[in-house]
Amino acid sequence: MLRRFLAPGITSFIVLFVLWFTGYDQIVKPANDDRVNLQKYIQAQRYILDNYVDVVNADFLYKNSLRGFVSNLSDTTLTIAGTPLDTTFTDVNIREIRDAAIHFERAYSFLASVDPDENLTARTEDAIRGMFRPLDPHTVYIEPTQSDRIREEFAGKFQGIGVQFDILNDSITVISPISGGPSDQLGIRSGDRIVAIDDKNAVGFTNQDVIDHLRGPKGTTVRVGIKRPNIESILNFNIVRDDIPLYTVDSSYMLDEKTGFIKISRFAATTYDEFMTAMRDLTSLGMEKLVIDLRHNPGGYLEQAVQITSEFFERGTPLVSTKSRHARFTNTYPTRSNGRYRDIPIIVMVDEGSASGSEILAGAIQDNDRGLVVGRRTFGKGLVQQQYELVDNSFVRVTISRYYTPSGRPIQKPYSDGREEYAYELRKRDKDANSDAGNFIKEIPDSLKYSTLAGRVVYGGGGIVPDHIIQEDSTSSYIYGFMRRNNTSFDFVREYLDANNDAFRAQWHDNFDGFRSDFSWSETDMSRFWGIMAERGMVISDTVSAPEFRNDSLFVHPNYFDEHKWIPQGYTKAELARQVWGTPYFYPVFNDEFDTTLDQVMQLWPDVQALKAYLESNRSRSTTLR
């Protein structure tokens, strides 16, 4: 009976699979969720078998996928022994993907028959995750609901009206219009509250509601009603949606008369263009030296990282190479022309959050002795992924190759102990950056020691150890944490601008440099800030010797308060810059107030010159010996 029940389904599935495999999936579309799920499963397995960096077989993938398929069954009492769901795999030998298709369809159909209420789409996704789990941590399944957001993030733009917003007291509040976007061009500004969209009440909207209503195809129009502080009537704007850039160069400005600073948050499709624009602007301001901040940059598109890196080298300089069992994913990436900034002195800032593309850039700078890498040991991600779309607009991201820095060193840290251990490795590092680097180097085998162009020793197998270790800024405060957790800084600045917007803009809007150096909060302003903190549960009391949380309230001793009260003053100034001028202006003020590591970086320029001289000396000696 079971054979009679399954046979028609298996036959139809095999036909569907053959059509898809031979390229006809665009003609024969799945007619229901079951066929979508089954096709998706086979697509995911095929992409691994065809593209994965290491050799894997269909039997290994199938058995792990079935373990995933049954891992979250709604009916925990379901008997699976001796059924197609049995994970003991007695007499199961999957020789090719066709066998996997047949066996998975049996398991899928059996579960549908014994538990009709089971969410088979979710179980199929569990099967794909189970299939991937024994592979590397960066080979992952991406749900359809996540794919649009990720695609936008790495495409570098979306389509909409161009505002940063937050929901405050059920109102859509504009944090800042995105520079050059349609809202900015119409004069919408920070502090405006969107109370109506297309003549319908928008009070009470969630974040997703706002996105659903304000984003839309380029060229379409949305009507918004805005309540502006100190203006009684509602202001109506007809906004034509357009491409809105998602900037990846968070900030660029001059640290002093000769030193430029560029912070890159990730490597997306527009990063190189953004970077070059920033470089041209800084050069016009007299930049002669450059600090590139890659702290907390998780990477992104390899090509974008390579393009940026190539601007600092002569033609033919090796930057990175990739190796795979597939010839199509094995490449070398030298510079193809002389970089426009090949002579400018460089310092690259990194930390444990710098990964992938950040490590490619930092590794090329370090291995070629082109500049200094400073900060803390990087994450250690030396794998390259490619993304493939599945039938339901979900994706699989598959590791296709490993990358190597110019000296030949692999950056990837170990992942053989599983994904959880891999993810938590950062927590196990010594908080002292010198101790972390020292312990790492002490355990490195000779096989993972490499040499830079000038003969300096560098290390592989666990991220990049900087040339100069700089400890993490230890500035911390319970008061700061309480302020951030309760969103007090944002609300305080928003209230200040509501009351003082016109006067503030008249004095400072066209004079950011003056604001950065001369603005400070008045005693009245800060009294109001501390009043909001008190309303939200901060208590100054000599009944505690150390900060203490009691439910949602924070109790601090007066001495502790006096020692830490400067921190919110600085942070709220940076938040004020963000709300008036936009996110890129947050960082100059924040760095002025808090980033002590930048002060240390600025003392290292003599070392950069010494490294250049050392490299030239070694080159000269090498030429003489020949």
Commentary on this structure:
- With 626 residues, the chain is α+β, with helices and mostly antiparallel strands.
- The radius of gyration is 28 Å and the shape is globular.
- The chain is built from 22 helices and 24 strands.
- β10 and β11 form a beta hairpin.
- The strands form six sheets. Strands 3, 4, 5, 6, 7 and 8 form a six-stranded antiparallel β-sheet that branches.
- It folds into four domains: 2-135, no CATH class; 157-245, Pdz3 Domain (Roll); 249-385 and 401-469, 2-enoyl-CoA Hydratase, Chain A, domain 1 (Alpha-Beta Complex); 478-594, no CATH class.
Task: Itemize the secondary structure elements and their pairings.
Elements: H1 2-21, H2 33-51, H3 58-69, H4 97-114, H5 120-132, E1 140-142, H6 144-155, E2 157-160, E3 163-168, E4 171-177, H7 182-186, E5 193-197, E6 200-201, H8 207-214, E7 221-227, E8 235-240, E9 242-245, E10 249-254, E11 259-264, H9 271-284, E12 289-293, H10 302-310, E13 318-323, E14 331-334, E15 346-350, H11 357-367, E16 372-375, E17 383-389, E18 395-404, H12 419-428, H13 433-442, E19 449-451, E20 457-459, E21 468-469, H14 478-485, H15 488-508, H16 512-518, H17 523-535, E22 538-540, E23 548-550, E24 553-556, H18 558-564, H19 566-581, H20 586-594, H21 596-601, H22 605-625
Parallel strand pairs: 11-12, 12-15, 15-16, 16-21, 22-24
Antiparallel strand pairs: 1-18, 2-9, 3-4, 4-5, 5-6, 5-7, 7-8, 10-11, 13-14, 13-18, 17-18, 19-20, 23-24
Helix pairs in contact: 1-2, 1-4, 2-4, 2-5, 3-4, 3-5, 9-10, 10-11, 15-17, 15-19, 19-20
